[in-house]
Write a structure and sequence with these properties.
The protein has about 550 residues and is α+β, with helices and mostly antiparallel strands. Helices cover about 40% and strands about 25% of the residues. The strands form four sheets. The protein has a six-stranded antiparallel beta sheet. Strand 17 and strand 18 form a beta hairpin.
């Protein structure tokens, strides 16, 4: 006999509901001799009250109900049992010495009974019917429970794959294990950049009856940083250097000793034995570890489901690691396209800040430049449309072309015309915004040529600010550009060039953000490095676009 069949046929707690003391005693005797536990009730109200007052863990698994009861019919009792979500799956066997016609039996079955026996009843017939009803009900409950847990597994898998960083991933893994196993759960993983060990703990997920197609809600997990040695110790306990998944059962003391390196003690959430599973999908990578209460792993499917979740977590974390490594590589490449230092120019102080987008965002094409030319110092800032490696490569091409044209001594308008022609010829359908500011050598005049970019922001010596708003079309459209606009700038004035990543917020008016930046610049420090830091702290947190910021003060 298979394990499932043996468990499904095991003895149970049975309620015998009959107003005849003798019959109730006889039926109860047969069930007790077969090993079942019996609770008795003399009428319908008493039987329903017995079920209502029992905890979920103490509910009878089957009811033997006489059809003729003094307060209500057995049919009505059965209907009320089946109408209650707590007892809807409880098998009901009707017995009767008087309601023995085909119509009686048909009515009982139509109104919810799982079997109908007419007296005289042989003991073997009753016990066989009880066993068959239990076997069917348990198999059905097991199938429904498995369906809910598979749904929970799918939901948890989607959650870990949807995580954008290490903390979100570890939190989702712990919450998923808790929901899947209806147990306290702990997840342990190394962050995608391999710098931080993260632990997350979640309370048990719901364990009571739920609708078959309703995915159990995942509990809320808390996450914190821990000593990397914790994961090393877990690897020594299971999996080692191997790949795939490996599961072990630990005593409570063993688990406490393994997580003792975490001084917070927040991973000590299990009352007794612990089931630990580790998974790794690529040789040489740190694994993912999930821990749950070992008592939830009693079923034949439990360990397999938890292992599947661990494997899904390992695959999701590997994808995060690959993304993190790719982003770091592309970011390194992007930085090679930017100036490694600013020129030292008498009469002009400069400071620059470049902040790449968040780790999970694609890189952009923001760039800056400061070039000494025959006519003075040329300041430039720009942005290639789009977010991709190609945008970064176009940015490098534009910046190097700008440097070459500027060294030849062209004025700002001509520089824009030449860059526009280059884009149209070599990068059709690509657009770029660029703002050029030429600071005349030994003078206070600046020349501004703007191709569709955020205008430069000027802070005068009295602290007032204004945008130099003259501009022309974007590069790449093959449209004529107006001459550069000249401005007489007093000694001590500050010019700020920026890309839209600093101030642009989806859904908000850009003019409002520009006004807020102007207000902040009025009270910002005079020292340019501090000024840039203040602006980044105020406007640059949590942005999903690259930020370039170039500040210059005329001395």
């Amino acid at each position: 006999m298979s394990t499932h069949a043996h468990l499904d046929s095991a003895v149970a707690k049975v309620m015998v509901l009959d107003d005849n003391d003798t019959k109730r005693y006889i039926v109860g005797s047969w069930l007790r001799r077969a090993g079942h536990t019996v609770v008795e009730a003399a009428d319908g109200a008493e039987g329903l009250a017995l079920l209502a007052g029992a905890s979920d863990a103490d509910l009878p698994e089957l009811a033997v109900v006489d059809v003729r009861l003094p307060d209500m019919s057995g049919f009505e009792v059965c209907e009320q049992i089946k109408a209650d979500p707590r007892t809807a799956s409880l098998p009901v066997i009707h017995v009767s010495a008087s309601a023995v016609e085909v119509s009686d039996r048909a009515q009982g079955l139509h109104r919810g009974a799982d079997a109908y026996l007419t007296e005289p009843i042989a003991p073997d017939e009753l016990l066989a019917t009880v066993t068959a009803a239990l076997r069917y009900a348990r198999a059905r409950r097991r199938a429904e429970r498995l369906a809910r847990r598979v749904a929970a597994l799918n939901s948890s898998t989607l959650a870990v794959y949807g995580a954008r960083d290490g903390e979100a991933f570890t939190t989702a893994a712990a919450a998923g294990a808790a929901a899947l196993m209806s147990s306290p759960a702990v997840a342990v993983s190394l962050s995608p950049d391999s710098r931080t060990l993260l632990l997350a703990a979640a309370p048990p997920g719901p364990s009571g009856p739920t609708e078959l197609l309703v995915v159990p809600e995942q509990p809320t997990a808390s996450v914190w940083q821990a000593d990397p040695r914790v994961l090393d110790l877990l690897c020594e306990t299971a999996l080692g250097d191997g790949m795939g998944t490996d599961m072990v059962l630990l005593s409570g003391e063993q688990w406490k000793s393994l997580v003792a390196q975490d001084p917070s003690g927040r991973a000590d959430v299990f009352p007794g034995r612990v089931g630990l599973v580790l998974a790794r999908t690529k040789q040489g990578r740190p694994p993912v570890a999930l821990a749950v209460d070992a008592t939830t792993l009693a079923g034949v499917d439990d360990g397999e489901l938890l292992s599947q979740l661990a494997q899904a977590c390992a695959l999701a974390l590997e994808a995060l690691r690959s993304q993190s490594e790719e982003h770091a590589l592309v970011l390194t490449l992007q930085r090679t396209f930017l100036p490694d230092r600013l020129p030292q120019v008498p009469g002009v102080d400069m400071a620059v800040r470049y902040e790449p987008a968040a780790d999970h965002a694609e890189i952009g094409g923001d760039f800056y430049e400061a070039i000494q030319t025959p006519d003075g110092l040329l300041l430039a800032i720009g942005d290639v449309a789009g977010h991709s490696l190609q945008a970064a490569m176009v940015m490098g091409e534009v910046r190097h072309a700008l440097r070459a044209y500027a060294i030849e001594g062209h004025d700002p308008r001509t520089l824009l015309d030449r860059l526009d022609a280059l884009l149209v010829r070599l990068r059709p359908s690509t657009t770029v915004t660029v703002c050029l500011v030429l600071v005349e050598t030994g003078g206070r005049w600046i020349h501004v040529a703007n191709a569709g970019h955020i205008p430069p922001l000027l802070r005068r010596t009295d602290g007032s600010t204004c945008y130099l708003t003259e501009h022309g079309p974007l590069l790449g459209l093959q449209l004529p550009h107006p001459p550069a606009t000249c401005h007489d700038v007093a000694e001590g004035s500050t010019i700020l060039l920026l890309t839209d990543g600093l101030i642009e917020i989806p859904g908000e008016d850009l003019d409002d953000s520009m006004e807020a930046l102007s207000d902040t610049l009025r009270g910002a420090p005079q020292e340019l490095g501090e000024l840039c830091d203040v602006l980044l702290d105020t406007f640059g947190k949590g942005k999903t676009d690259d930020i370039a910021l170039l500040a210059a003060r005329l001395l």
